[in-house]
UniProtKB/TrEMBL annotation:
Protein name according to UniProt: (S)-1-Phenylethanol dehydrogenase
InterPro entries xrefs: NAD(P)-bd_dom_sf, SDR_fam
Keywords: Oxidoreductase
Species in which this protein is naturally found: Bythopirellula polymerisocia
Catalytic class of the enzyme: oxidoreductase
Keyword Oxidoreductase: yes
Signal peptide (residue range): none
Family classification: Belongs to the short-chain dehydrogenases/reductases (SDR) family.
Amino acid sequence: MSYQIKDSVALVTGANRGIGKAIVEGLLDRGAAKVYAAVRKPSSADELVSEYGGRVVPIEFDLEKPESIEAAAKAASDVTLVVNNAGVLRVASPLAEDAVDALKFEMNVNVYGLIRVAQAFAPVLKKNGGGGFVQLNSVASLRSFPDFATYAASKAAAYSITQALKTMLSDDGIQVVSVHPGPIATDMASNAGLDEVAEPPSLVADAIIDALATDKFHAFPDSMAKQIGGAYESFATQVIEGSTAEA
């Protein structure tokens, strides 16, 4: 199973900046017919509309508001590719006073939000004959970092959900991709103090498109991600993607 971008109809969450914007641009530059830019404020996608015209359709969307996700699934009923890019990060170690509050916030967006998106859009993709479902996880889903421990925990949970979706959606012709970027040049990375090691968001878009075209479950876009992905490859191949995963 593989997914080709040309003439596709996609929806990208958090599409107005950073990685999300780069994904929208990457899809359109490779021939996507239309991309729904799923954002909290539709006006924040005006720059994309100015550049690509009617091929970009802004749509109101908030991972913390189930009703907005359900409304988006009804409005974007022609999608064959969903890229759940939107997420949040709070700098909090396990011993920080706000660690529990940080984790609750991150779980609500990064994990419960993913579940809400999957529940709303899996039936749409199935109705449209299958397609692709891409989840932006992180290298932090595989390796925790003290200052971002609550974020890492939420992304580890999101990765676990993504693995389950891979198995469940394959019977409906839906290819699932789990993307694990390292530091990428975004506002989130800047707030986390990672500017010096951050790499371009376009690397994430390229990795997603490659994974879809070559039927890969894992995508490791940047230098840090490739290093961690290389060390993880044997386990991922034999356990996560292999026959052991079906046991």
